[in-house]
Amino acid sequence: MTDTVVQPWSAGSWTTPPAEAVEDGPDLLVTAVEGSDAWRHTSYGFVHDDAHALLAPLDAAVEVTFDAGFDQQFDQAGLMLRVDAETWLKCGVEFSDGIPQLGAVVTLGRSDWSVAPVPDWAGRRVTVRASRDGDAVTVRARVDDEPSRLVRLAPFPPGATVLAGPYCAAPTRSGLTVRFTRWATGPADTALH
Predict the structure, then answer these.
(1) Distances, alpha carbon 1 to alpha carbons 91, 108, 120, 188, in Å
(2) CA distance 9 to 180
(3) pTM of the model
(4) Average pLDDT score over residue span 109-130
């Protein structure tokens, strides 16, 4: 991302405080509370709004980098954009069906979920990027220094005040600690592809 501004971890506020958040040099180690998640209604019938998201105001684009070193069902980390409890987007890597899955959940009253298996991303450094323009958010992701891939083009309310930043959750276990290595903001993408 050109014209990038790296955000200090102190720039954000937690939606729900994690069990622990500790700075380790330039990195942030976040330990999720067991049972934490973000989801609204669809298929499962429940509402969870206690994922650990460290958010600050978003103008255009945001990137979060983290280590995908987790291996328990529904362990997840990445990036969250949030307007309110019924309007948000989370994107990143979630461990599901025995492998890491690259995906996004878009919630506009009700949640949806799109995933693609990325078994070769296990234990590697992942960067997720969301770029907001007009009535849409474009989500891209990459592993290490490989090229970014398009994850999702999703509708999102134009003109709404949006907060964004790193997030993680551990719906099924205790002890998930995610290493976040970078949080940056910058201008919106100029092209979809």
Answers:
(1) 18, 28, 24, 9
(2) 10
(3) 0.94
(4) 95
| Residue 157 near residue 11 (C-beta atoms within 8 A) | no
| Angle 170-153-61 from CA coordinates, rounded to 5° | 75
d(CA 179, CA 77): 9
Find where tokens 């460290």 sit. 54
Distances (CA, A) of 27 to 67, 68, 163, 176: 11, 14, 21, 16
Alpha helices in 29-140 (DSSP H): none
Q: Which residues of 136-175 are buried (b: 16+ CB within 10 A; e: fewer)?
A: ebbbbbbbeeeeeeebbebebeeeeebbbbbbbbbbeeee
Distance CA 65, CA 41 (A): 29
Architecture of domain 32-183: Sandwich (2.60)
Q: How confident is the model at residue 183 (pLDDT cuts 50, 70, 90)?
A: very high
| Widest CA span in the chain | 42
Q: What is the pLDDT of residues 125-164, one digit of tens each?
A: 999 999 999 999 999 999 999 999 999 999 999 999 999 9
Looking from the CA of 109 toward its CB, the CA atoms found within 13 Å total 2
Q: CB-based burial of residue 107 (10 Å sphere; 0-12 exposed, 13-18 middle, 19+ buried)?
A: buried
Kindly give the pairing relationship between strand 177-186 and strand 87-96.
unpaired
